[in-house]
Amino acid sequence: METVLSGIRPTGNLHLGNYYGALVNFIKMQEENNCFFFIADWHSLTTHPDPKMLHENVRNVLSEYLAAGLDPDKATIYLQSDVKEIAELYLLLNMHAYLGELAKTVSFKEKARQNPHNVNAGLLTYPVLQAADILIHKALKVPVGKDQEQHLEMTRNYAKRFNSKYGVDFFPEPTAYNFGSELIKIPGLDGSGKMGKSEGNCIYLHDDAKTIEKKVKKALTDQGPTEPNQVKPDYIENLFTILRVVSKPEVVAYFEEKWNTCGIRYGDLKKQLAEDIIAVTTPIRERIINIRSDNECLRKVITEGAGKARESASKTIKDVREIMGFKAF
Ligand code: TRP
After folding, report:
1. CA distance 227 to 159
2. Probe ligand 1: pick from 11, 126, 148, 177, max atoms within 8 Å of CB?
3. Which residues share a beta bridge with 80?
4. Per-residue pLDDT, 183
5. Which residues does the chain have with pLDDT short of 70?
6. Among 32, 170, 192, 292, which is 20 to 30 Å from 201 by CA?
């Protein structure tokens, strides 16, 4: 049983890319590991969200996590801001985080460039808060994408620095959780690389059948192949990539054959693709609607999660205080 931790900023609804890229793996992970799944609401403050939206966004992510199959009996599901020990560890780690290294973090430079009027200290120390999230439970594995690798490396640096500064072997050095060959990237429907909120090319888990049909219909296509066995252009390959994930092998084989013999009809392909996506998302969508309106259930999940998370966090913070020289009278 390894301790695995994953965090998500509550900034929008979950889409098919989140589902196949992360959630499907989380559902397996929670069977074999001591998993912590948390919603990083403090982190989301770095970009100053509308206070009215903050709670809505948290409620959405929580409902969608549960609807997709994260199980509060198997994993610890909690809200970052419910665990005050994280804030204390963040404060303490900040004393060993240096301006130079923070200022050259790729994510910081990018955010500062995008938003020059809001280069706040929270943005600068974002990786320190993330390190606190991870180290508070002494997590060993963190499932992260490429864009988060530097933050994980900084976490290892803070762990090492703490250990060597105080002459202890206290914090383990977390590494990326590797899903291995199972890692699936869902491309967008617009011919671009991956499906993403900011790209505006998403199929959301809460989309209804009509919406999905419309979105798939609008996907970029062309006149069709002109020669047998032609290499597919990216935007067509993307549709096949999604088809391989959601459809039966025979269905994929059928459309491959049609492509290779120049007999493909994109209308048929899209109809099938939409139908098979809808088959995956419909039960999830129904659960989202039910859970989202069941405040009692959400309250129970988040309260129990906070309890379990704080139990683990308070053990760590107690030791950290002692190591750093805080003593009770
Ligand atoms: N920075 C992560 C992201 O933007 C979210 C996050 C916050 C996180 N704290 C974390 C991820 C701790 C993993 C572990 O995706």
Report:
1. 57
2. 148
3. none
4. 66
5. 181-183
6. 292
